[in-house]
């Protein structure tokens, strides 16, 4: 490797470290503006900076605008963040899991994935407490809008292509996600 390449790698690593430390020192919340009302989520930037940074970046870019909650299971969770709207889409990249704290309790927001280190854009919000394995990075909690969560989770569903009864009959749209920095 040439000296120039080494310097570029060092600078890139420095910038990543600075970005992660910057986000850790800030408090963020996200307001999900949905077709059923707003859900405000407090994001755990101090505990899961990589995951929160990804969610904030995608939100600010408008990635989630006009997507739907494509998977809804009453008493369990609502899932969104897929630009295709069928559970197969994502941002075109994946990132690794990171250590996290917490349980999958009502109002918890976590990354949906297809296995270890396959996080992208899809997330879910717990409708009720549920004993999931610690395979999904928890990165926040609903602070306001549990009534909206209930309205989405209690929407009529039908059988999807996977055979699971979780496909919304009338999907609820995420119009946009607004990021608030404190």
UniProtKB/TrEMBL annotation:
CDD domains: cyclophilin (cd00317)
Domain PPIase cyclophilin-type per the UniProt entry, residue ranges: 37-179
GO BP term, example: protein folding
UniProt-listed SUPFAM superfamilies: Cyclophilin-like (SSF50891)
EC number: 5.2.1.8
Catalytic activity annotation: [protein]-peptidylproline (omega=180) = [protein]-peptidylproline (omega=0)
Family annotation (PROSITE patterns): CSA_PPIASE_1, CSA_PPIASE_2
Segments crossing the lipid bilayer: 6-23
Name by which UniProt lists this protein: Peptidyl-prolyl cis-trans isomerase
Organism: Candidatus Roizmanbacteria bacterium GW2011_GWA2_36_23
Higher taxonomy: Bacteria, Candidatus Roizmaniibacteriota
